[in-house]
Amino acid sequence: MSTDTSAGQAASGAAGGTHPTPDRNEGLTADDLRDLSPADQDLLLYRAMAFVRAFEERVETLYKQGQVRGPAHLALGHEAVAVGVGAALGRQDRSIGTYRGHHHALARGTPPEGMMLELLGRAGGVCGGKGGSMHVLSVEHGYLGSHAIIGAHLPVAAGLGWASQVLGEDRVTACFFGDGATNIGAFHEALNLAAVWHLPVVFVCENNGYMEYTPIETVVPVTYPAADRAAAYGLPAITVDGNDVSAVREVAVAAVATARRGEGPVLVEARTYRHGGHSVADPAAYRPLGEVEAWKARDPLAVHRDAALARGGDPAVYEAVLPEVREQVAGMARRAQEAPRPDAADAWTDVWSDGSSTWRS
Amino acid sequence: MAELTYREAVAAGLAREMDRDPTVVLIGEDLRAGGVFKTTKGLFERFGPVRVRDTPISEQAIVGAAMGAAMGGLRPVAEIMFSDFYATCWDGVVNEIAKARYMSAGRLTLPLVIRSANGGGIGFGAQHSQATENWAMCVPGLKIACPSTPGDAVGLLATAVRSDDPVLVFEHKALYGVRGEVPDGDHVVPLGRAAVRRSGADVTLVGLAATVPMCLAAADDLAAAGVEAEVIDLRCLVPLDAATVLGSVGRTGRLVVVEENPGQLGWGAAVAALVAEEAFGDLRAPVLRVSGGNVPLPVAKELEAEVSPSAAKVVAAAQRALDHRRVAPVG
């Protein structure tokens, strides 16, 4: 059991039979879940996904109102991958993700208030107004950032694993990327390096079927864009239903354990689906009729709720979760909209470690 | 005080930092074998496979892993064998490493160094001879050090390794065999402080790395003709010691910038613009640049020399500056 204060509080609340506290947004790790009953674990997993859902729905609305600065790539439909893998990581572990990364940030505990401020370009955002939607992070929660050049962060994940290995630290790094990233060189260089160095990294491909606007099967000659390539580098690869949080969590637990034992990297390919377009600005008219509906019938929240109810979960409790977190996120959005704008002078700070941007005498 | 070659100084400098700090690690190609320029000779034997890591030919993996390692608590020194190969991993350098601190509002710190063999003059051709320091100078967030002596190879490297900012060190491959004195003990040269290698009142010559000995040779020739040239070794492009350049121009009134990269957009243009903006009143002649030619570098000796800066070209430029007479407007 983690001795971390926030994890301890959350876990004891849920273990005590009450449903999770409404303001609990510090992410969901293996440490939080370890000592809970299966029913409480179910509920926390559902709540974590519901929070991501509510957050992304609100961002979509705000974007359409013209209030989000820059693009926003939403994770609607991807919730189970972030939450399932997050639930397999310990608090000391690290993760790193892509420009479609709100869910990965939230799953580790990145403060949603700070993310909302960042997205709306207000003072106090998690990147100080210098990163925006595509670069959110929380170093203290082990989320080392959303990176917006496809594939560039896979070698960075290898480097994080290398540091853990050299320093003898018990830390696994989970690296999330999309199916589109499997065709860029950095993906192959990173997998190869991680494999030959036996690095404690779990590569997680979030395969939503589309590289931006193009169906992935038209640009990849194999069935599983990531998993089929992993074999070439000697990486064990696991494919999983990315819309089933319990299934994702189960394979992630095994993958993280392998990496933690020093047996080298593992690749997980989770098949999921993007409910919307590549970004909010993309109406995604290129998708065949009926495809969205078919996938929404397997919505990750519904899949998990139905499974939890079948295991004896209380329908009324589950029914209450989404409205509750939506209300919470709406409040965050209202407060963010009322928050002050950043001081323009902040644009000149944080280039160098002395805080300045001075390049000459 | 030991006399070392520039290449020995690089290896010695790396060893000193690795001795001093156990989090300093090396990553790159052929390091175990000592490196193609023998700049890591003996380090694998001394520090072992955990701290001296050979990589596949995977430059994106090298710079990305260096970045991740720096985020994860190490102080990696990555090697890109030839600076031309930055083109294969430029994304990691300019989009990731240069911007991580800024985009995270200071929450990410990347204490890393990338070393590479830079520049021409030894017939390696267009893909292995470029002076690419000007590429890096276009990108805020990268510090750029270019040692011209064995002493600076140690001193600038030491500062770079200890810096919490990413530093690109461009070692000049034509200088690797040059001998020079390296101070014993903890020899540190601050980043962003130029060295005045020779004092003179008539004309300022500004060089970097291999163009510094070129400027000194030119200054010898000029002295024989009665002209006293001041030679400034910039040492770093970022931070740039503009004050030392401006101060010198304030005394001499004439400036010749000697850069190896192509003149069409070299670092010399930035120095020239800065002097034009801030020391216009001090100038007694136009600022002149001796630059690399605006062609890919050829191999044959005569061809490469034709398009490269040289002491003779520096002397000619200095003479032009000295011969310049301001003509009063016709009235």
Structure description:
The complex is a heterodimer of chains A (361) and B (331). Chain A is an alpha/beta fold and 361 residues long. Chain A has a single domain, classed as Thiamin diphosphate (ThDP)-binding fold, Pyr/PP domains (Rossmann fold, 3-Layer(aba) Sandwich), CATH 3.40.50. Chain A is 42% helix and 11% strand. Chain A has helices at residues 5-15, 30-33, 38-64, 79-86, 102-108, 112-119, 153-167, 185-196, 227-230, 245-260, 291-296, 300-310, 315-338, and strands at 94-98, 143-147, 173-178, 201-207, 210-211, 214-215, 237-241, 266-271. Chain B contains 12 helices and 14 strands. In chain B, helix 9 packs across helix 10. Chain B has a 7-stranded mixed β-sheet, with helices on both faces. In chain B, strands 9-11-10-13-14 form a 5-stranded mixed β-sheet, sandwiched between helices. Chain B has helices at residues 6-20, 43-51, 59-71, 90-97, 100-103, 133-137, 150-162, 211-224, 242-252, 267-278, 301-306, 311-323; strands spanning 2-5, 24-28, 52-54, 75-82, 113-118, 143-145, 167-172, 179-182, 195-198, 203-207, 229-233, 236-238, 255-262, 288-292. Chain B is an alpha/beta fold. Chain B folds into 2 domains: 2-182, 3-Layer(aba) Sandwich (Rossmann fold); 195-323, Rossmann fold (3-Layer(aba) Sandwich), CATH 3.40.50. Classes of the chains: A alpha/beta (361), B alpha/beta (331).
Keywords:
heterodimer, A: 361 residues, alpha/beta, two-stranded antiparallel ribbon, 13 helices, B: alpha/beta, Rossmann fold, 5-stranded mixed beta sheet, 12 helices
